[in-house]
Specification:
Radius of gyration: 27 Å
Number of helices: 24
Distance between the termini: 69 Å
Shape: globular
Largest sheet: 5 strands, mixed
Low-confidence stretches: none
Strand order of the largest sheet: 12-11-15-13-14
Helix content: 25-40%
Structural class: alpha/beta
Strand content: 5-15%
Number of strands: 19
Length: 597
């Protein structure tokens, strides 16, 4: 085995790749060759390390020095100073957003300090295209253990005692789901991984598949053994080309080593795994729609029962879990149900992966123990609100979830608490909003998404979301009427209670939760024809404060429609008839003389 004195880990997740990590890696290769260090220093392309805001990320081991926003131009200095002379390049270190303290190692960065990485345990630490690196970290030991030391019933019991609940949003107990499928009669059964992640702002499943595909494959193989099936599918949207590429490589490597296919490890158990690329329809995240799509039909849900465990793919008993759920399974088998159950709350065990996005300083992928509060995630891990603005709320669970306001920021993250607050865990999208976010416009954004993604099969979803979207659009355009609020609430309740599938059942959540906590903003739009956050263009009025205006003419020159007039060094004026409310004058003024009302 070749020994090296340093490993340079370069993040190869989609976020860092789009920021230029490939070019950084190429520059590193050339620079190491130039200094004849290629035998002493090993470059490893990893999956997503989570801190996408700061990409491209480079970590140098054994000391774990954490470099952020590295460019190819930085590489010569990094090699010369760090790898040759052993001196840290301080200008490339992470700088804390408030204290501006430079932090040398990634374990000391606040973004990582409060995280507990279970599903993400290997992401950012191994080369996902090399099965040997997964095996070196204990990979496939759990599969070997269940095949030679445990009966299927014991595996199901272990998962049940761990308290693992489905991480796709519903939170149904995973072990119980496996048991239902095992008990369903029939020799032919299927196990399916739902990797059709389509929430706006969510990339948890994609990152796990890109960074640690073998953990999902191993989890599925263990699940297949437990429920008694020998064939499985990973349903992943075609919009995730890197995840698909790495899955294909991982499946081929596992087959070559006898970890998939016929007679795995000589145990007599056989399991084949296939990839089904979806076209990217949000409704295909629903179990029955997903199975219809695998069968080659249009992805539309059907009435349940029968449930997939009774009659699923091609009419056979089937079990569906999402990516994060399967990624947790191998580590539960190896470390035990009690270890997993020791994390989290009484009813929500373990950890949860969130995609932290929006108006927060540190965006990226975070994994935290259940029970942690929103405040800890947003202000400690996330580093607070961008620009020191006021926190207003957080949309949790994507378009299926709801909005939690500032007053409830100490709400613990668990399934029951979030539902009580009018939101839901969902798959883990977490969008932070500040004082500049209009909550009516936010509700319209999410409803516009679910309305467009509705398959149209059932009337409540097809027509109900369409009527709700029309009302929200009217309110944002300043044409709302007093009865709109009651109509939105009534329509929301009807759609939730009568839609055929989860998409329709949860589509009104962003509207109902914003009505619950931010009703005053709806009323301001309707009664006062005013947008408190100054977002809805139709409701904005621009004027000039004559006492502040010095007549510099910057606004006059920038106005695209000639709506501003005034002599040099004299206060200017805006003609409201000509003003198109583009906001250019507001952005250009250096005297804060433009008022946006």
């Amino acid at each position: 085995m070749q020994l090296v004195r340093a490993h340079v880990l370069v993040c190869g997740g989609t976020g860092c790749t789009s920021s230029g990590s490939k070019q950084v890696q190429e520059a590193l290769t050339k620079e190491l060759e130039k200094h004849k260090l290629e035998q002493e220093v090993k470059i490893v392309e990893t999956g997503c390390h989570g801190f996408c805001e700061m990409g491209p990320l480079v970590i140098v081991y054994p000391e774990g020095t954490f470099y952020v926003r590295v460019t190819p131009e930085d590489v010569p200095e990094l090699v010369e100073e760090h790898l040759l002379k052993g001196r840290i390049v301080t200008r490339l270190l992470y700088k804390a957003p408030v204290t501006e303290e430079q932090i040398p190692t990634y374990k000391e960065v606040t973004f990582y300090k409060k995280q507990l990485r279970v599903a993400l345990r290997n992401c950012g630490s191994i080369n996902p295209e090399n099965i040997q690196e997964y095996i070196a970290r204990g990979g496939y030991e759990a599969l070997e253990k269940v095949l030679f030391e445990m009966t299927p019933e014991q595996v199901i019991d272990e998962i049940k005692r761990s308290g693992l609940r489905g991480r796709g949003g519903g939170g149904f107990p995973t072990g119980l789901k496996w048991e239902f499928c095992r008990r369903s009669p029939g020799d032919l059964k299927y196990i399916i991984c739902n990797a059709d992640e389509g929430d706006p702002g969510a990339f948890m499943d994609r990152s796990v598949l890109e960074g640690d595909p073998h953990s999902v494959i191993e989890g599925m193989a263990i699940g297949a053994y437990a429920i008694g099936c020998r064939e499985g599918y990973i349903y992943v949207r075609a919009e995730y080309p890197l995840a698909i590429k790495r899955l294909k490589i991982a499946i081929a490597q596992a087959e070559e080593l006898g970890l998939l296919g016929e007679n795995i490890l000589g145990s007599g158990f056989s399991f084949d795994l296939h990839i089904k690329e979806g076209a990217g329809a949000f409704v295909c995240g629903e179990e029955t729609a997903l199975m219809a799509s695998i069968e080659g039909r249009r992805g539309m849900p059907r009435v349940r029962p029968p449930f997939p465990a009774q009659r699923g793919l091609w009419g056979k008993p089937s079990n569906i879990n999402n990516v994060e759920t399967f990624a947790n399974v191998p580590v539960i088998i190896m470390r035990g149900a009690e270890w997993f159950a020791s994390m989290g709350t009484e009813k929500s065990k373990g950890t949860k992966v969130f995609a932290l996005t929006g108006k927060v300083n540190n965006t990226g992928l975070v994994e935290v123990p259940m029970g942690i509060t929103l405040r800890e995630i947003i202000f400690e891990i996330g580093g607070g609100i961008v620009g020191g603005k006021q926190f207003k709320g957080v949309q949790i669970g994507g378009p299926s979830g709801g909005c939690i306001p500032n007053e409830l920021i100490d709400t613990p993250i668990d399934y029951e608490s979030l539902i009580a607050a009018g939101a839901m865990m969902g798959s883990g999208g977490l969008v932070v909003m500040d004082e500049t976010t209009c909550m009516v416009d936010l509700a319209r954004f999410f409803l516009n998404f679910t309305q467009a993604e509705s398959c149209g099969k059932c009337t409540p979803c097809r027509e109900g979301t369409k009527r709700m979207l029309e009302i929200l659009t009217r309110i944002c355009e300043g044409k709302g009427v007093p009865e709109d609020i009651e109509t939105l609430e009534r329509l929301g309740r009807v759609v939730k209670g009568t839609a055929l599938c989860g998409l329709g059942n949860t589509a009104p959540n962003p509207v109902l939760s914003t009505l619950r906590y931010f009703r005053h903003e709806y009323e301001a739009h309707i009664y006062d024809k005013r947008c408190p956050a100054h977002v809805c263009t139709a409701l904005l009025v621009y004027t000039i404060d004559e006492e502040k205006c010095i007549g510099c003419g910057r606004c006059l020159k920038a106005c695209p429609v000639g709506a501003i007039s005034g002599e040099k060094k004299e206060p200017h004026k805006i003609d409201p008839e000509k003003c198109i409310k583009c906001g250019t004058c507001f952005e250009k003024c250096r005297q804060d003389a433009i008022l946006r009302l």
